[in-house]
Write a structure and sequence with these properties.
Length: about 350
């Protein structure tokens, strides 16, 4: 079934490491943007959907009533499957009672909260607007409104961060019994304030050890490591994001939103005002069969299941060149190849770019 994605390109302030498309906003702009999204929804072909995801930016900044307005438009235009997953990304500093009440009433059943660290100095370095204390209060408040399907974000590879510090942050988050944890390595993106500050990041080997230590900790806590950066309790995978990795279709609405819909990839330009004026998405270059195959390999090798032999053969034909490349890496503990197909181990995840280069 189809997934729906809404990009909310607003943030109260820019974090020091962030290169996503987002900017400060006003009440008038948020109203106009919500109206533009509703208009686009009304123009969509009616279909059955089973996931809805509000990403950003900071969707929680839009406020409960605007998010509910968008969901009402969705319910009018689309058919929602039973147990549709409805996720809203939230920052701790924009979580409050009116927001949670409105989201609960609107049927939102999953919150993704950008905590990033349990250390105040790390949060300051990242330019986050919240303290860890605020994050704790936000999580508790969300739980008190019945949001038990919580996804929390952490970052590793921060300047000055040791393995012990990351594990301490993870331990703090585990105390809230989240359903899902995402853990992303910091990348210094050109043009960001953090990039310009030339911080010294932990050495690659140190980052690798930190990542593997986190994997061990989360496995011991009962989490499934189902994607390079994502861990969940059994049955709590992010169903919407899984569509990106398994080549399912999704329709994205909003400035900078991407779609893979009816076999085509297209995206709205990174221009909020143009979206409000009603611009249309731009078709991305038609991919040839080699590009499609490379993209499939890249996305599937991010997951614990990896490349499924039968599925690959149905889509692209002979699987044996893949197997001949990946099988020798098994002796180095980087891959596992069996009857089902080939996948990367956690050590393999660490060098996934190099392995993908070998394949494509
Ligand atoms: S809240 Fe997220 S999208 Fe907004 S500036 Fe920070 S990292 Fe970027």
């Amino acid at each position: 079934m189809l997934g729906l994605y809404f990009h909310i390109p607003f943030c109260a302030a820019k974090c020091s490491y962030c290169s996503f498309y987002s900017s400060p906003t006003s009440v008038a702009q948020m109203d106009a943007y919500t109206a533009a999204l509703c208009k686009k929804i009304q123009a969509c072909q009616s279909e059955t959907i089973d996931t809805i995801y509000f990403g950003g930016g900071t969707p929680s900044l839009l406020g409960g009533s605007r998010l509910a307005q968008i969901l009402n438009a969705v319910r009018t235009q689309f058919t929602l499957a039973d147990h549709t997953e409805i996720t809203v990304e939230c920052n701790p500093d924009s979580i409050d009672r009116p927001l949670l009440q409105a989201l609960h009433t609107a049927g939102v059943n999953r919150l993704s909260i950008g905590v990033q660290s349990a250390h105040e100095d790390e949060l300051r370095l990242l330019g986050r607007r919240h303290t860890y204390c605020q994050a704790q209060s936000a999580i508790k408040l969300a739980q008190s409104y019945g949001f038990d399907n919580l996804a929390l974000d952490l970052m590793y590879g921060l300047p000055g961060q040791t393995t012990a510090m990351l594990l301490e942050s993870a331990e703090q988050l585990l105390a809230f019994q989240p359903a899902h944890l995402s853990c992303y390595g910091l990348k210094l993106e050109e043009g960001t304030p953090l990039f310009r500050a030339h911080p010294i990041l932990p050495e690659e080997d140190e980052q690798a050890e930190t990542y593997l230590a986190l994997c061990r900790m989360l496995a011991a806590a009962g989490f499934e490591h189902y994607e390079i950066s994502n861990f969940c309790r059994p049955g709590k995978r992010a169903r919407h994001n899984s569509k990106y990795w398994d080549f399912s279709e999704y329709l994205g609405l909003g400035a900078a939103a991407h779609s893979f819909y009816h076999g085509k990839r297209f995206a709205y330009p990174q221009d909020t005002e143009a979206f409000i004026r009603g611009n249309i998405p731009v078709l991305e270059e038609p991919v040839n069969s080699f590009d499609t195959r490379a993209e499939y390999i890249m996305l599937r090798l991010r997951t614990a299941e990896g490349l499924c032999r039968t599925d690959f053969e149905q889509r692209f034909g002979d699987f044996s060149p893949i197997e001949h490349t990946l099988l020798p890496l098994q002796a180095h503990g980087l891959t596992i190849c069996d009857e089902a197909g080939c996948r990367l181990t956690e050590r393999g995840f660490l060098v996934s770019n190099a392995i993908i280069c070998l394949l494509v």
